[in-house]
Amino acid sequence: MPSNTTSTAVRRATLAVVCVTTAMLMLDIAVVNTALPSIAADLNSGVSALKWVVDAYTLALATVVLSAGSWADRRGRKRVFVIGIVTFTVTSLLCALAPNIVILDIARAAQGVGGAILFACSLALLADVFEKGPARASALAAYGATIGGAFAVGPLVGGVLTEVFHWRAVFLVNIPIGLLTLVATLTWVPESRDRRPRGADLPGQLLVSMGLAGLVYGLLHGNEAGWTEPITMLALGIAAVTLAAFCLHELNTPEPMLPPHLLANRAFAGAQVAAFAISASLFAVFVYTTVYLQNVQNLSPIEAGLTYLPATVAMFVVAGMTAKLEGRIPVALSLTVSLILVSVGLLMMTVVDVDGSPYALIPGFVVACIGAGVFNPVMSGLVLGESTARHSGLAAGINDAFRQSGIAVGVAGLGAFLPAESLLPGGSPTELVHGLHAALFAAALIAAVGALVCATTIHPTRHNAPASVAVSNSPGTEVPA
């Protein structure tokens, strides 16, 4: 529980550190989107290797964040957070210095490990210094706006850095930010840990990593080389076997990294499906709309980034308004409506055409990002309610794992609708637009399914209902309603 004696300066400093590092992590997904065409040209990359620039990062985030959360509970969240900052900063330098696409992909995976450590600790650090009430609501508003806003403004930041300097600048910018947050963390952020921590689940970590990596690789390779190719079928087969083995292992191991009793609760499981859905739809499709703006509409990186600016502003405003309504609107209703808005916005974006205006995307993006502006603070509040339990790092890690795996799988899966050659400079604009239409329809369907799951699994809460309900006899193991 947060201490009543925690000073205002410590609370503000902790919030600032968490928001800045979270913005840096989300930016490193989004800024790369605008830089992809420049990276492809400079490093002479194929489509599959180019997509790994995004997916190597998000896949590492998704697979490591669960173990990182439990590790932080055991070793101390501040200590592990510092390790994450150092890892992320050093690997950002390696990305900037990468001489070819293979080294860049490897460095991005290592960068994702550092990002996973930071993500796993972020909500736990906030839970340690902010008590439930108006102060926590304001912190959630800032955190939720940071997640969505940083991702949305990322293409503009990436465009400016790429056009004014070089694509390598999108990684170099992390170094001074990392150093500043390291100093602030060591100076201001208090330490916290679990007095009865969970043990490590190394077999589970290995199985889920192999499973998700096989799935993403199979989807990427299938789109480029063919779905009946032996390597594609082998990768997808390995994914199916290892993910099934992971589920069996988690059901039978004493201390699983993904406790089955948490997902046995319909409300908690539904929330994770919602997190996966918004990531696999809206946030994943950013990659392909950015390529469309640059390769079909011939916008510069800066112009492509500016196209997203109205949606960015809308997301920030809506996130702040949503946080002020905490407790007045049922969580189930908020999340359901937010995903419906995302789905509608994605459908509106299907007006894109080879000869149409590049700004035809803007109305749909605004509607979708209004939905995301509602979604992010509500979801963060739901997870932070779980983070008040003694396994706060694990709870935050579960949600981050579903978010990041959604982006990784979404980028690979939606990419199957776009011919590989159309994504490279000089590719067929007509084929890219036709594929983008299909990807947008698929993304809208994913968001709609997420809305349906929220409506049927997350039960409405009363205004004065407790933030979490017990689902286990284990002390401190609670799940938000």
Can you characterise this structure?
- It is a single chain.
- The chain is an all-alpha fold and 481 residues long.
- 76% of the residues lie in helices and 1% in strands.
- It has 17 helices and two strands.
- The protein has helices at 8-43, 47-75, 77-97, 101-129, 134-165, 169-172, 174-188, 202-225, 230-252, 260-263, 266-296, 301-307, 309-324, 331-348, 362-387, 392-414, 429-457, and strands spanning 468-470, 478-480.
- It has a two-stranded antiparallel ribbon.
- α11 (266-296) packs parallel to α14 (331-348).
- The longest helix is centred in the first third of the chain and has 36 residues, at 8-43.
- It starts with 7 loop residues before the first helix and ends with a strand.
- The relative contact order is 0.15.
- The model is unreliable at 460-481 (pLDDT under 50).
